[in-house]
Amino acid sequence: MLLLFFYSPIKSKAYNFMDVNFYLEHNTVYPKHNKITTGNKAIILEPKIMQVLCFMVEHQGEVLSRQQIADNLWPGSIVGLEVITRAIFELRKVLKDDAKQPKYIETIARKGYCFIGKIEPIEEIKSQRLLPDSFLAKVSYKAVIITALLISIIILFLVNAPIRSVKDSPESTVKPSNYQSTILSDGIGEIQSASPSSDWSKILYIQTDANAKESVLILKDVTSHQYSILLRSSDLLRSVIWAKHNNASFFIQCESTECKVNKLFTDNGTIQEIYSTKSKLKSIKLSPNGKQLALTTMNNGRLSISLLSLESQQESPLSINKKTSNYAATFKNSGSGIFYVQQSSSQATINDYNFANKVSKEISTKFSKVTSLQLEDDGNLLIAGQVNSLYSVWRFNIKSKEISQALPISAGSYAYELVSNKAEKQLFYLKTSSNYDISAQGLTKYINLNQVNSHANDFYGTWSVPTKTLYFVSQRTGSYEVWNHKDNKNNKLTNIQADNIRRPILNEKQSQIAFVASQNNQLKLMVYDIKKQQLIVSQNLAKEAHLLSWSSGGDSIYMSIASDNIYDIWQFDMISQQSKIVLLAAGLILKEKADGSFIFGDINSQQLMLKKVDGATTIIKNFKGLALLFRPHSIKLNNNNDVLYYVQQDAPRIKVMSTLLSNAVNESPKELFSLSANDYVTDLGRHESDFVIYDHLESKTSQLVLLQAVN
């Protein structure tokens, strides 16, 4: 796409900066694209946050109150001033501006904010040309104008054309609705659960106070934006819902050994215990008649649904598949049953369960992920989920099975706690956004992390020592693909538009890379030939698998698959494309030596084992007594099999350690790196010096969003 920009000099602050690209020192701001770039790194902003920036730039040097900003950018809308606070917070984070020593946005105590940064308009953006300057020099000025106009028309057509997001589904249509949004939270605190009252005048929500290590239950008035704290607790609070009347609510409170369902009277703060259980309660839903609760419970790593009678306090499990996770119970208006989600490794099946005959009927298999389920009316479900790599809020017609897009959700964000008020054309949800970046230590000579990471999720980095190349997974194109980074350049390898991709592994020759991907609701083992630049294997998998390593000859792949024996090791043969079990209860680590013997991890005994070709097994390293993070790629042997790298939990940090196996009994382990407890190690080893690659949560926000449909 060729984009040409023509600018006039900025002569006054009345100039509309939403129409012009400009520099803020080393940052380039593209308001029409809601984008800020620094070098080769691009960050996409929410449209309103970009408007706040441009409004402040237009009034450079002036002190602007939060009310002034809100009145100018949200005229006629009810917006809490904390929205402005969040926008300033986001802008400072993106621009790397220190509130105590600001370069761009200065806080004026009790008055507001003042933009103090240096602004420079861009006369011409050569970096956005796809044609060389030598070609443009030969094109007449008139031709350039005509070309720009034609392309502008094409762009406008593409932007406004309906997006057929549900691919390969002829009965599916996309019908986005227009909504006016009101943000009811500041986006700083982490919100766990939220629920609007029946008349939509109030919001109850649970927020985590990280500093005090408490859960806080808050009541907020939608009109005045005033709030009151109803409960603070060191226990874990979750899943708050309103009772049939606006003066009472239900919520879950979990201690170390039990969880309780409580009833809270909002007018006087009285709390009444309704039910207690040793199981881990995750969520609750109230029936239309107010006499039952649907409980979602975590047992043995799986979610299950049961009914709790509020009159008898008796819990009754539903007769549904116990071998899968079942969640998101949503009562029918008639009270005759529920809709719920059954989750497998790569597919979220929507089911209809009838209380009378205790029969569950499958009604949709088009979703690969579902985060929220809500009955809009007797004929339609609202589903926040992923269909063919696109995550949105969808409208699902129960009778025709037609799926249409009800509300687009930006990349990296998810919708929870959906509530619909169809009569008033309102929609409420809890929006969470996160951005994972790849971090590394010991490889700064080879990796420019500022160029690797994008505004979307980037993770699962793995390092190729021979080729000095970083391979990783990224969501920057909207779906998940495998990328690499070499010589300060990023290159997209695959074009599979996956719903998700697990951590890839390289063969010994560094010529092929294997990974497990979810694609079109199917879990697949894929192998990409780096030299041929093509996918050479795409094999369906029946169960979730963690790829561990390639065989020493490169003709097979070892993977760990969950079973009744915790984890078994399977071998996938590249020639026959068949799999077989090679080790039972072997854990999440395996390396094949040149002589055909195996080094593997035993989770039960917390030992690193050697299994020789003749079947004899010996202990290499005993990890008993250590808080070892026993997970894929957190334990690694060097090529000579004499140095062991591993990750150890040492709250509130995690440590990357190494030890010599030749005299492991006498030698003390060596601490190499210290990381935060939330960092997830994806690769470790040695390249000239010791290194570690890990996923780091760069940002995480949650917002309460109230939407009003507009014509």
Which structural class matches the secondary elements?
mainly beta
Distance between the termini: 32 Å
CATH architecture of the domain at 179-434 and 701-709, by name, is 6 Propeller
The biggest sheet amounts to: 5 strands, antiparallel
Assigned CATH superfamily of the domain at 179-434 and 701-709: TolB, C-terminal domain
The CATH class of the domain at 179-434 and 701-709 is Mainly Beta
Low-confidence stretches: 1-14, 123-176
Our count of helices gives 6
Helical percent range?
under 10%
Keywords, please?
single chain, 711 residues, mainly beta, Arc Repressor Mutant, subunit A, Neuraminidase, 5-stranded antiparallel sheet, 6 helices, 54 strands, globular, disordered N terminus
In short:
With 711 residues, this protein is mainly β.
Overview of the structural elements:
This protein has about 700 residues and is mainly beta. Among the domains are: about 15-130, Arc Repressor Mutant, subunit A (Orthogonal Bundle); about 180-435 and about 700-710, Neuraminidase; about 625-685, no CATH class. Helix content is about 10%, strand content about 50%. The strands form 13 sheets. The chain has a 5-stranded antiparallel beta sheet. Strands 9, 30, 31, 53 and 54 form a 5-stranded antiparallel beta sheet that branches. Strands 36, 37, 38, 39 and 40 form a 5-stranded antiparallel beta sheet that branches. A hairpin with a 6-residue loop joins strand 33 (about 470-475) and strand 34. Helix 1 crosses helix 3. The protein is globular.
